Amino acid sequence: MTTNNWTINRRRFLAGTAGVAAGGILAGSLSPRHALAQASAATFTPEEGASLRLLRWVPFVTGEEEAWNANTKAFTEATGVEVRIDQESWEDVRPKAAVAANVGSGPDMVMSWFDDPFQYPDKLVDVTDLATALGEQHGGWYEGVEGYAKQGDKFIAVPLCAIGNAVCYRDSHMKAAGFSEFPKDTAGFLELCKAMKANGTPAGFPHGKAVGDGNNYAHWLLWSHGGKTVDENGGVAINSPEARAAIEYAKELYATFIPGTESWLDINNNRAFLAGQISLTANGVSLYYAAAKDPTLQEIAEDLRATNFPVGPVGSSVELHQTSTISIFNHCQYPQAAKAYLNFMYQAEQMNKWIEGASAYCCQPLRAFEDNPVWTSNPIHAPYAKASETLRPNGYAGPLGPASAGVMADYVLVDMFAEAVTGQRSTEEAIANAERRIARYYR
């Protein structure tokens, strides 16, 4: 990993927000792609006496938080603008942000999940000038992450990252179950899970209201079998043979899990894996680093492997990755300071430090940063490297908007699978319930 000691001062900042990039490349480690950063960027001058407050999700990788905080400190030293950072659990960011938006007070900015900004677009500052300039400066936004921040031609948020999701498993346990390599299709995957359970080294995937892991798993189940919540025109399409096949498959997988996964949140599969209770799940790269940094978990760290989800009957890889954006609320008293802060954080000098600090946990939103050395620094990073490029938006096959945001926030798809696999409802009843709930949003 490249280490850089950058110096920042007020004069450089005021000039640099118009084009920091000339000095923003990690020395000798990145390709000429960063010549794109020579393009003109916007300039935002903080208001007199400005201070800011950011609401963000609790980090799963310490280095990510440390890099973000260090960059924030550099911004404050350069501008005098203090930035307070509040943290909430992944599940609590959404309701906290919604309250702030609708009440008109609280944090000035928020790191949101998925299409949450579409739940209150009229409560957010138009950041088209900032996002457009950043896109031009850094090679353009990835289409998938951009979609979570853009309403029509207007940016209501700035894309932040895609948190890659991959299957994590114990290599020795897979081999002990009779598999020399990880299955590439859903049929083989099911047989692996059955064999691992028989060996006392079961799998476990969240069927609870886990913002990231639960949604990622549920959408993969549906999409891999060719199902979708809505069609291209936003018509409700969940009641289909493909959705039935996905549920029946999910039931068979669930039978190989340890008990209790129907109540799991984002932290639970991590804990179960590191405690040796399960040997296969899906997670961000944070699972590997949690093991690697704990002297008592070195055996697990050395045995852990990561791979992309197997391909289902649909015939191609279809995955949802956790996406995050940053929005500025209309009630922010210092919107220019907020834009200046975000502009600073997205310059190459700061963004590359953050991506490296996150150790492949956060996949860059801008194409100019895809050659950051973090992606080739460790083989475990490979399945996470293309998360921003390959993600399928949760609103598929319809457009993102208030309806898709509502369905996601209401955990409709997660609940459909949970109801069916636990026997709370039959397959037909679970689909019918999901159909009713989806229709409430797509009216």
Automatic annotation (TrEMBL):
Stored InterPro entries: Bact_solute-bd_prot1 (IPR050490), SBP (IPR006059), TAT_signal (IPR006311)
Keywords assigned: Periplasm, Signal, Transport
Presence of keyword Transport: yes
UniProt-annotated location(s): Periplasm
Pfam families: SBP_bac_8
Family: Belongs to the bacterial solute-binding protein 1 family.
This protein's name: ABC transporter substrate-binding protein
